[in-house]
Amino acid sequence: xxxxxxxxxxxxxxxxxxxxxxxxxxxxxxxxxxxxxxxxxxxxxxxxxxxxxxxxxxxxxxxxxxxxxxxxxxxxxxxxxxxxxxxxxxxxxxxxxxxxxxxxxxxxxxxxxxxxxxxxxxxxxxxxxxxxxxxxxxxxxxxxxxxxxxxxxxxxxxxxxxxxxxxxxxxxxxxxxxxxxxxxxxxxxxxxxxxxxxxxxxxxxxxxxxxxxxxxxxxxxxxxxxxxxxxxxxxxxxxxxxxxxxxxxxxxxxxxxxxxxxxxxxxxxxxxxxxxxxxxxxxxxxxxxxxxxxxxxxxxxxxxxxxxxxxxxxxxxxxxxxxxxxxxxxxxxxxxxxxxxxxxxxxxxxxxxxxxxxxxxxxxxxxxxxxxxxxxxxxxxxxxxxxxxxxxxxxxxxxxxxxxxxxxxxxxxx
Length: 414
Description:
With 414 residues, the chain is an alpha/beta fold. The protein contains 14 helices and 14 strands.
């Protein structure tokens, strides 16, 4: 289930396009949870329903309660008069949006349905399903992390990716998580006032994440298996590493965490998909060149009789068998592609997004923006000029200039 807040359709579209490329079968199981009619309409334009695209669900109950606040937030953003956190009502709206996805997950768990809960600002570079299945077998809940290897990840949670198996213990854990919405605990006490701790900035954006990390996990960790996913595998702006060849080896997904605006998140994630596609394109060229060189070498090394076409019967039979196997493998690949396309018909690979309406431009021309390798010029990843993402913290993360404390804070060393 993908939770898409107003103004985040461009991010959600990148996510769906990345899944279509890496795990097309997953799309048949995706529900896009929306909170405003414009986003719902943009989603439905891709093909609403499991037989056409993805399920697009509008939270009518939320809209009925918060519709006026949503309209105010939209007007404030358009007129650039207010930031979301500058009024009490808009702050409450942000908190309500943060908790709504947890309510939706709990309803599905009540129906004995396992849930993968995703924020809109996550794209996939590899098929995630094997890692999801493994985590759901082993743990009561698994979440991404802000920083750190698997050891450090256990002490700093990022609920942009949350895996919830349909077990009694998980249902009880989520029930306790939802208590955070109504408990009369000051938000500053749940999070912290330490400005040296970057995770506090993320908490202010997502109070449900803060409650999970600081209030829930310390209580349930003694009897529930709560697991943090390695932040290098499920990465964000701080921890994503392209590798020497740009192939993001070992990286399953990347989120827009530590980027301040939807626009910055989208630019970073789009550039990540382009970088991955560029590396795949370069690898394909290298493999083709190696294949040509190998064929030339084999031809040069063959006996004179063989080069003149006088092969013995065994060699001829082996060559024919190899060609037959290759044709059979190619047919299997084509059938798999055809079946995948049939399952995901109605959902085009990304082309462009209308910034005014967030509606998908379905017609594809000149390549798939965000997935196309684009130019062969030298990489400029991640983009930093004019990007509202925390470049200083990214450098510090790669230098190891931070500590993850026992009380679940990320403290950045001066």
